[in-house]
Amino acid sequence: MGWYQWSVWGFCGFGYLIDRLWAQAFGLALGLLQQEFGVGSGQAGNTSVSFSVGLTAGAFVWGMLADIIGGRWAYIFTVLISSSFGLGLGASASYTTFLALTAFVGFGVGGNIPIDITIMLEFILQADAHTSWG
User: Looking at the whole model, is its pTM more than 0.85?
Assistant: First the structure.
């Protein structure tokens, strides 16, 4: 593995870390969201549902788009979508707006997760048949 492979590994690993942190952030902020928007416990689960719907749609759409426009552009667009809608979460005036933005964050993250792994696996060197791992 050379410098380029380590850079790709770090770049994609950092993207994957950020994706996992989004999932944790919604769980950690749930109590504060209930307090801020006056949402009851029965409606608080809608945040997870909204994020999961976005994840599902993102994985489906970005999987096909990555084949059409290429993994590099798909990766850039998924990061752009998840980060810009994630910044918009801070300006949410209502819980409905928050749920809509959460779905769009999930849409970006849902595409980013498989694209991260695919890019990393394409550019990390494969073991040679004569290489000893022993």
Answer: no
